[in-house]
C-alpha cells in the first residue's frame, strides 16, 4: 500500500478508502490509485485484511447434489453476486443424507471465519440437520422451497401451475406428471402445483410417474407415458423432458403432434432440443443476489418477509392442441 500511495501521490489512507469503495474519494483520485495498482500489480491480501479489520468478507456456501443443474447454477450465481458485493466465497460440500456430513461441512465453514452461510439445500434432511445445530453466523437456505424463516426461493408451485396451464390452455385434459425424486423439496412443490392447477380447472388428476432428474429416467418413462392414455406431460425438469422426447421419437410418437411436453428450469440447451422445449425459467441470478444481500446487510436475516421469485413460462415448439 505504501508503494501504491507513493506512485499515486496520495496517502495510505486514501488507498485504503479506494480499496474499500469509500464514497468520499474524488473520481480523479480514485482513477490515479487504480492506475498505480495496475502498474505495480497490486492485489489485496484478504487474509491480511481480515487480521486488520476482524472481518473475513467471506460467505460460506454449503451445498449438496451440486451436479444437478439448479444447485450448480445457484453456486455459480452466488459466487458472482458475492464478488460484486466485495465478498469472497468458501464452499463446502455435504452428503444430504448424512447428518454428520452436514455438521462437518458447517464446522469447516465456520472455522474459515465466514460472515454468513448460504445453504443450497434441496432436501428436507439437510434442513433438519441444520435446525439441530447452533450456528453463530447468519444462515440463508436456497432450493428449500421457501421452508422456514431463512428460506429464499423461486415459487416452484407457481411454476408448475404455469406449465400445466399452458397444456390445458392448448386443449389437453389428460396430462401426466413426470416427477422428480420424492426426497427433494422442489420436486414435492412442483407435484403440488401440478395437482392444484388440474383441480382448479376441474380436470381429473393425471398419473404421476417417478423420475430421478436424469434424462435416462425420462427415457425409461416413455412406455408408461404411452400406456397411460395422456396427450401431454409436464416433466419436473428439462433433463427428464429431454429423455422423454428421445424415447417418444424412437417409439414413433410425434411431439407435439401426438404428445405435448413441457419442462422446468430452462437449461441453456432447451432451446436446441427437438422440438425446442417449452419450459419454466427460474431466475437463479436474482435468487443469489437476494441471498447475498440478506447476509451482508446490517439487519437480522429473516427471509420470511421476502416474497418468492416469480418464474416465467418460456413458450417454444413442444406444445400443440391434442390430436385426439
TrEMBL record:
One of its GO terms (molecular function) is transcription cis-regulatory region binding. Residues 1-53 form the HTH lacI-type domain. The keyword DNA-binding applies. InterPro entries: HTH_LacI (IPR000843), LacI/GalR-like_sensor (IPR046335), Lambda_DNA-bd_dom_sf (IPR010982), Peripla_BP_I (IPR028082). Keywords: DNA-binding, Transcription, Transcription regulation. It comes from the Bacteria. Gene3D superfamilies: 3.40.50.2300, lambda repressor-like DNA-binding domains. This is LacI family transcriptional regulator. It comes from Microbacterium aerolatum.
